[in-house]
Amino acid sequence: MKPALIWDFDGVLVYTPHEKAWREATRKYGGDIDHEFYVKYVSGKPRYEGAHNILTLTGIYEKYGANSEEEKERLLKEFAEFKNKILNELIDKGEYEVNWGAIEFLLNAKKSGILNALASASRNASKLASRIIVNDKRLVELFDVNVSGLASTKKEVFRLAIEELKRRFSPTCFIIIEDAPAGVKAGKELGSLVLGYERDTTLEEADMRFRDFKELNPSVIFELCKEGKI
Fold it and tell me: What is the pTM of this model?
């Protein structure tokens, strides 16, 4: 039996300042969003989709007189790039936190022969994972497969991870670890088992929900695969 874990990055392995960057960008453009809005309309969604939701629902399109599709597309790209600029500046200042509980579970999983794939739709994930050192190795080097940034949606990046794991290792089952409702939904649509990390969001659609990585161990993963819950 050879299980494979497919890891989301932001909010699972590392707490990155994505929400702060979106909120600062929104305020700069004359709008405002709170945490509930971020979770419902932005978190786990493709960058342009999240940006479009903000511009639409906070009235920024209207405020900037973006009425035509061309005007909206121009403002959308400008806004999304501005948010990314803020995000990179925050990361460069060290405004992120490593989830060492998740890292410990990752290391234990590797020791038990469980495969691991890093699968974030964010292009920033690999860059940041290369900065973080774990036992004299870069975090990104702990993964058997890394497809982060190679697709723009959660569903497609998870699909890429599954395909690459199959091509190289032939795992017997796939388990996705996610913290956002959109990511849980994407994993379920692919027919995978999804572990929902409920740090600050309820993930009712997840197959198994947990609030602390201490609740997980390699035996749990092997048992889930053995029971055929994939």
Answer: 0.88
